[in-house]
Amino acid sequence: MEKLKKRWDIVENWQLLFPFLGMTLTICSAYLFARRLLHLFELNNTPFEWALTIVFTSIFSIILFRFFIWCFKKLEGKWPVTYRWEMIAIFIVFAVTGSTAAKLAAPVTELIGLDRETTNTWLFWTIRILIIFPLYQVLLVVFGWLFGQFRFFWSFEKKMINRLGLGFLLK
How many folded domains does the chain comprise? Predict the structure, then answer.
């Protein structure tokens, strides 16, 4: 445990929540990938289903962990964080925000009367992305605040708004 605390600059026990939450979410994502792969190749409902699920979940977990560690190393000097565990919190916020914005876009498109089957595909996805984008921006700051990273995400949002040429909205 001390090795984990030292590696992620954890000084308070409550900060252990972020590495454990990050590991749990990564394993859950790997499990969902494995299940999707089994369904894709119609290997579900076979005698080997759970064995294959465990094997593929393990493989995907290792791949995802290595990818995230690589991302942490690349972004460590670029993101203004004091502790390494804050990077885990930031990654979690990005993941939760993206998933939530995508899920919330479906009821919003239905609310305005757009349906995937009856609307032109290009029009449907263009409008859906235009709905997701501002929703994502708002949720990013909200989830950033909930995970104790408001300052990082507010700064991130201001940069993004300025890069889009919408800096006048902040004044």
Answer: 2
